[in-house]
């Protein structure tokens, strides 16, 4: 229980709006529930949510201690009352989610409750599978990331052991990820490999592609095959042979065939985001995967994205 005395600057506010500001981690639905259950008392009594508080009033908040913490990315999950996840697969070790365009995997430097990892933490916390007060250091974590405006499968680890194994397998390229992309024009040849060198400008969150080696640039290779062509656009499947930032977007743009909807590397300055989806994942382990061996050769896909349906393609 925590007691708050209302000062001059806080007087005149509605009870529920004041508590929402004073305890920012408390979800709105839980706030209203606690007012109804009289776990939030005004001057020793239960109160209605729209009562105006006055200077000198005393609030007694019978709320769990974790909600009084300073908001950070690590505890943003507490603010989420109803997690929003599209779960592709789940077991005791991992969870695969279909991240939608516009959703960040992690916060972009500021406290953000709408990230994928915050929703995963909220989901596991509310199920009772993750009990942060009983953990010394581990929290559910993402094993891979994709761009904000890219859709597709993201892997989250529920245990420290699973996270360690996934990190090893991703580095060893023993987890096969395939992407679908809609591009402007038609690739020639229709199937092939894009190669080059990528330099990352971290300050502007952008990369640049060069055909020749340059200081600070890393080699990049993307294998592609054309699946369909329609109305001057192509649907291509991509396999990353290297894992560089914005690799697919930058390499196709460099080849003269930017992704449809890509405002950063393409011509669609008013686009709502690149038409790119990490649609297929295969656990193609070549070496022992320990506790995750049961996933060997298992394949997972998302539902056909809208832009792929435009070409008559179906997963």
Spell out the blueprint of helices and strands.
Elements: E1 2-5, H1 15-22, H2 28-36, E2 40-42, E3 45-46, E4 58-61, E5 87-90, E6 94-99, H3 116-127, E7 141-142, E8 151-157, H4 160-171, E9 175-184, E10 191-201, E11 206-210, E12 218-230, E13 233-240, H5 247-254, E14 276-283, E15 299-301, H6 306-309
Parallel strand pairs: 8-14
Antiparallel strand pairs: 1-4, 2-3, 2-4, 5-6, 6-8, 7-8, 9-13, 9-14, 10-11, 10-12, 12-13, 14-15
Give a structural overview.
The structure is a single chain. This protein is of the alpha+beta class. Helices cover 17% and strands 29% of the residues. It contains six helices and 15 strands. The protein has helices spanning 15-22, 28-36, 116-127, 160-171, 247-254, 306-309, and strands at residues 2-5, 40-42, 45-46, 58-61, 87-90, 94-99, 141-142, 151-157, 175-184, 191-201, 206-210, 218-230, 233-240, 276-283, 299-301. Strands 5, 6, 7, 8, 9, 10, 11, 12, 13, 14 and 15 form an eleven-stranded mixed β-sheet that branches. It has a four-stranded antiparallel β-sheet with strand order 1-4-2-3. The protein starts with a strand and ends in a 6-residue tail after the last helix. The model has no long low-confidence stretch (mean pLDDT 94).
């Amino acid at each position: 229980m925590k007691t708050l005395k209302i000062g001059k600057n806080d007087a005149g506010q509605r009870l529920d709006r004041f508590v929402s500001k004073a305890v920012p981690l408390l979800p709105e639905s839980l706030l209203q529930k606690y007012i109804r259950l009289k776990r939030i008392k005004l001057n020793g009594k239960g109160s209605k949510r729209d009562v105006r508080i006055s200077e000198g009033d005393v609030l007694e908040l019978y709320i769990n201690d974790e909600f009084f913490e300073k908001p950070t990315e690590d505890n943003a999950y507490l603010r989420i009352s109803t997690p929003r996840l599209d779960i592709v697969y789940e077991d005791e070790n991992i969870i695969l989610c279909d991240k939608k365009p516009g959703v960040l995997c992690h916060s972009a430097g500021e406290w953000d409750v709408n990230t994928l990892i915050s929703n995963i933490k909220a989901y596991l916390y509310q199920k009772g599978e993750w009990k942060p007060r009983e953990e010394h250091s581990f929290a559910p974590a993402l094993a891979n990331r994709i761009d904000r405006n890219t859709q597709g499968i993201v892997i989250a680890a529920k245990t420290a052991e699973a996270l360690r194994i996934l990190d090893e397998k991703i580095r060893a390229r023993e987890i096969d990820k395939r992407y679908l992309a809609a591009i402007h024009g038609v690739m020639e040849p229709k199937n092939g490999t894009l190669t080059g060198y990528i330099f990352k400008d971290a300050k502007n969150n952008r990369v640049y592609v060069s055909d020749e080696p340059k200081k600070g640039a890393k080699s990049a290779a993307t294998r592609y095959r054309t699946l369909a062509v329609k109305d001057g656009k192509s649907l291509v499947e991509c396999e990353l042979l290297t894992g560089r930032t914005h690799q697919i977007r930058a390499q196709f743009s460099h080849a003269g065939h930017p992704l449809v909807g890509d405002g950063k590397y393409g011509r669609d300055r008013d686009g709502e985001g690149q038409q790119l989806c990490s649609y297929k994942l295969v656990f193609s382990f070549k070496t022992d995967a320990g506790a995750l061996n049961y996933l060997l050769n298992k394949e997972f896909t998302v539902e056909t994205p809208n832009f792929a349906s435009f070409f008559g393609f179906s997963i």
